[in-house]
Amino acid sequence: PGSLAGLLAECGSLQSEEEEEEEEEAEPGPAAAAAAEQRREERLRRFRELHMKRYEACKLNSQEVVEEDKRLKLPPNWEAKKARLEWELQVQEKKKECAARGEDYERVKLLEISAEDAERWERKKKKKNPDLGFSDYAAAQLRQYQRLTRQIKPDLEQYEKLKEQYGEALYPTSDSLLHGTHVPSKDGVDRMVADLEKQIEKREKYSRRRPYNDDADIDYINERNAKFNQKAERFYGKYTAEIKQNLERGTAV
């Protein structure tokens, strides 16, 4: 927009100069004719410059339209993919440089990582808790123990008081007698009871899918027929219960 305004301004000034030249050409004299010729040449030069500027502006505008059309046709995550590819190329070049110098790339990479980045990555790793499923009872118990310990919120004030009270005896050794020496607080007991009740409530909600009941009557010939009978029983069982009993007893009319 700024260049377009400049072009219009220059065109306006050229038009005004042309009008002034026409007025001067009406006056006789060789000096006026020479001055008019000089201004005409200057005006033609400026016209050529304006033409070149207009051509360059049209060319740049067309290039920008083509580039914008390319960007609109790209997928939405193209920038992220491009950054990822550039990063992979940088890693490959870095590995080649390290191999040429006889250095270990992993060691060089760790030396370039700052302490803040390392702590942030460690926190991300700790947040991950993949559920690998049930493998054995020991692993399940370990997962339960880790989950419960993560929920513990230590009372640092109470800890400092106990440390001042017992001193080194607060940290038992293999020769320390622990049985009967610790009396839990009321808050600790209430917290343990609340946690146990929560576990019981959660355990009651567990349900295991059972494909069939061994004690139930077999009134189907295949799995598809069993599902159909279950649907029929769910919708029409209360209406056909008496008929079914009469058929089973042999008293049906």
Automatic annotation (TrEMBL):
Family: Belongs to the SYF2 family.
Stretch list, region Disordered: 1-40
InterPro entries per record: mRNA_splic_SYF2
Organism: Tychaedon coryphoeus
Keywords: mRNA processing, mRNA splicing, Nucleus, Spliceosome
Biased composition (Acidic residues): 16-27
One GO cellular component term: catalytic step 2 spliceosome
GO BP terms: mRNA splicing, via spliceosome
Subunit structure: May be part of a spliceosome complex.
Gene (UniProt): Syf2
Function text: Involved in pre-mRNA splicing as component of the spliceosome.
Location in the cell: Nucleus
Keyword Nucleus included in the entry's annotation: yes
Protein's name according to its UniProt entry: Pre-mRNA-splicing factor SYF2
Coiled-coil boundaries: none
